[in-house]
Design a protein that fits this description.
The complex is a heterodimer of chains A (374) and B (164). Chain A has 374 residues and is an alpha/beta fold. Chain A has 4 domains: 193 residues, P-loop containing nucleotide triphosphate hydrolases (Rossmann fold), CATH 3.40.50.300; 82 residues, no CATH class; 39 residues; 37 residues, no CATH class. Chain A has 13 helices and 12 strands. In chain A, strands 1, 2, 3, 4, 5, 6, 7 and 8 form an 8-stranded mixed β-sheet that branches. A two-stranded antiparallel ribbon of chain A has the order 9-10. In chain A, helix 6 packs parallel to helix 9. Helix content of chain B is 43%, strand content 21%. Chain B is globular and about 50 Å long. With 164 residues, chain B is an alpha+beta fold. Chain B has a single domain, classed as Beta-Lactamase, CATH 3.30.450.30. Chain B has a 5-stranded antiparallel β-sheet, with helices on both faces. The chains are: A alpha/beta (374), B alpha+beta (164). Chains A and B meet through strand 1, strand 2, strand 4, strand 5 and helix 2 of A and strand 1, helix 1, helix 2, helix 3 and helix 4 of B.
């Protein structure tokens, strides 16, 4: 997921180049590294074998500077393409925000491309990521070679979902930046739409969002499900915090009215959006009643937990104070004194111990035994 | 479904920084970093100027991820502490909560025992601070605008103008 750091005003996205072995993933990165202005790029780190095959990942941080007051950073990773390295390949996918599938256009490599695509889906599924939700771009690399498949054929076989694709010759830089720009656009769009209200009240919006996902692209979606608070439009994050606080920490005392209004509005929106016929009113009402009861139960439970947590915190605080006053740590530190002559840590306990002569005798015996000398 | 975005607020960073400083002073370490499991650097304290912390964070996260996989293969749920010993400097890596890693770099002025002790204490504190993400309200924070992606693309276009 995209990391947003408000303290440093930083947004950080992880983009992974995926694809079969020798399809040009690392070449993409090398080209970007070569051509990017020095102030934007970090060091290209390559964890490769002696034969320059990626072993774990290549990593290139790219800092594109301020965008609307946020320092925007991309972290570009490649995976090892060889089938053998699936364990490490899978690890690189963790927390991915955007994927670029680099396919080898050569006819002979078609099989490998398909296999890699299957492997990608498999690995994503294991992490529980939904391929449909993940921004993804396909890059058909090595278009300058002979004996390559036609774009139509590649599209038909590798890209049935009709994702955006780019033709590329990575080592010459053709298509490399177009691919990067396109994925960054998709990723940031997704990050923004994720921080919009649609994720806030999950229970209520799940169905609406699910329906939307089938038909509407991300950018169109976010606008439609904008939630208005009683005071009018409120910034995204506030809304998030308010609702979440109520749901999770049971401080529903503050403005319940506001909340119900918000959720009502969501429900209305949901109705507007839903294409299928709305369920009978009675069922809806029943559901709401049940939902409220559950919520109250949950709130009480959480409130209790919170009290316990507070008590525990108090205890911990006093214990910390006691610990500071009673110096168990200090005593520990005095015991281990630093002796400058020996340049090693010597505890006084060890110093007092005398060396046992028996041990030396044993060593001598052993020496005699193996050398046969006296 | 993907995990939600990692969002860190200013007060949190302040608290985290304070905890890290306490750790560095207590354990006499050189520096301490808090890294997200995906390799994003959250914050850092101590002598980090000579370090490429971005790369460090990514590599440490990678190393931690592979260790975790090793743990799984030998039937452990997780190796929660990792220690790299060098000639001068050593690195102590420990898991904080579910999503972040605490990295302490130290040399021979202190001992691994001290670092472990303070890292454990600091880790517990950080878990609480990070747990507050969803609790704390943030009123005036500027959020990402709808045309953010477009602005970013413009910026990318500027940077790679002559290339494409």
């Amino acid at each position: 997921m995209v990391s947003i750091n408000y303290a440093f005003r930083e947004i950080c996205c992880k983009i992974v180049y995926y694809g079969p072995g020798l399809s040009g993933k690392t070449t993409n990165l090398i080209y970007i590294h070569k051509k990017a202005p020095p102030q934007t790029r970090g060091e290209l780190i390559s964890l490769a074998t002696d034969a320059d095959r990626t072993l774990y990942f290549d990593f290139l941080p790219l800092d594109i500077g301020q965008v609307q007051g946020f320092t925007t950073k991309f972290q570009l990773y490649t995976v090892p393409g060889q089938i053998y390295y699936n364990a490490t390949r899978k690890l690189v996918l963790r927390g991915v925000d955007g994927l670029i599938f680099v396919a080898d256009s050569q006819e002979a490599k078609l099989e490998e491309n398909i296999e890699s695509m299957h492997n990608l889906v498999e690995n994503l599924n294991e992490y529980g990521y939904d391929l449909k939700e993940l921004p993804m771009i396909v890059q058909y690399n090595k278009r300058d070679l002979e004996g390559i498949s036609s774009i139509e054929e590649l599209e038909r076989i590798l890209n049935p979902r009709k994702l955006p694709y780019f033709e590329a010759v990575a080592f010459k830089g053709i298509g490399v930046f177009d691919t990067l720009k396109s994925i960054s656009n998709k990723v940031l769009d997704k990050a923004r739409s994720k921080s919009e209200p649609e994720k806030k009240d999950k229970k209520e919006l799940v169905s609406a969002v699910a329906q939307q996902h089938i038909t509407t692209p991300a950018f169109a979606r976010a606008e439609e499900i904008e939630i208005k608070s009683p005071q009018g439009s409120i910034p995204v994050m506030d809304n998030d915090k308010d609702v979440e606080e109520k749901v999770h920490y049971g401080s529903g005392l503050k403005d319940d009215a506001g909340k119900t209004q918000v959720s009502n509005e969501i429900r209305e929106k949901e109705k507007e959006i839903s294409v299928e016929p709305v369920k009978p009113k009675e069922i809806l009402e029943k559901k709401e009643e049940l939902g409220d009861q559950e919520k109250i139960k949950g709130q009480n439970l959480i409130r209790n937990q919170e009290e316990i947590l507070k008590d525990m915190l108090k205890i911990k605080k006093t214990m910390d104070e006691m610990a500071l006053n009673q110096l168990p740590v200090k005593i520990h530190r005095e015991k281990i004194a630093f002796s400058p002559e020996e340049k090693v840590m010597v505890s006084p306990m060890l110093k007092q111990k005398k060396t046992k002569p028996v041990r030396i005798g044993f060593l001598r015996k052993w020496f005699e035994k193996i050398t046969g000398r006296r | 479904m993907q995990e939600e975005n990692l969002i860190i607020y200013e007060e949190q960073i302040e608290k985290i920084d304070r905890a890290l400083i306490k750790l560095i002073k207590g354990a006499e370490a050189k520096c301490a970093l808090l890294v997200d499991k995906d390799g994003h650097l959250i914050t850092r304290q101590g002598f980090t100027h000579s370090l490429d912390t971005t790369a460090l964070a990514a590599l440490l996260a990678g190393s931690f991820a592979s260790t975790r996989e090793i743990a799984r293969l030998v039937g452990e749920p997780e190796f929660s502490v990792l220690f790299h010993q060098g000639k001068r400097d050593h690195i102590h890596i420990s898991l904080v909560g579910e999503r972040s890693i605490l990295v302490v770099i130290f040399d021979d002025r202190t001992t691994i025992g001290m670092v472990r002790l303070y890292a454990k204490e600091c880790g517990d504190e950080l878990v609480m601070v990070l747990g507050q993400t969803t609790r704390e309200k943030k009123k005036e924070e500027k959020t990402i605008d709808s045309d953010f992606a477009a602005s970013a693309e413009e910026r990318l276009n500027d940077i790679f103008k002559e290339e494409s």
